[in-house]
Amino acid sequence: MVFENHKNVTDKFIVVGDRVLIKPKSVDDRTKSGIYLPPGVQEKAKIQSGYVIKSGPGYPVGPPSDVDEPWKEGAEGPQYIPLQVRIGDLAIFVQNSAYEIEYEDERYLIVPNSAILLLIREDDDLEDYLH
């Protein structure tokens, strides 16, 4: 899949917070009737899709209060609520919320988790969630 070719990129990038690194899916430059579209037309679409390359740790959560549970030992370091995305998921997201970057002649998008509308997962475990 797409994400396997970008393994070296994932080693160099550290995605922070609730953000997701996405490789945009290549779009057709023609309409169904065969008319060629200029490059700016596809970029003006409100919804875009791409493959998840890497994700941040999630939403930061404050430490539990010692007043509520004085007997409980506090966890060391920051704690996060993890994101739903997995590497390789096809994400459908709001284009206006994405930040475009270019690295080694490749185009990537940094998208906040809140802008992702739908995930398409090619996984055998998906059937366990549906039943």
TrEMBL record:
Gene3D superfamilies: GroES chaperonin. It holds the Pfam family Cpn10. It comes from Chlorobaculum parvum. InterPro entries: Chaperonin_GroES, Chaperonin_GroES_sf, GroES-like_sf. It comes from the Bacteria. Belongs to the GroES chaperonin family. GO terms for molecular function: ATP binding; metal ion binding; protein folding chaperone; protein-folding chaperone binding; unfolded protein binding. Keywords: Chaperone. This is Co-chaperone GroES.
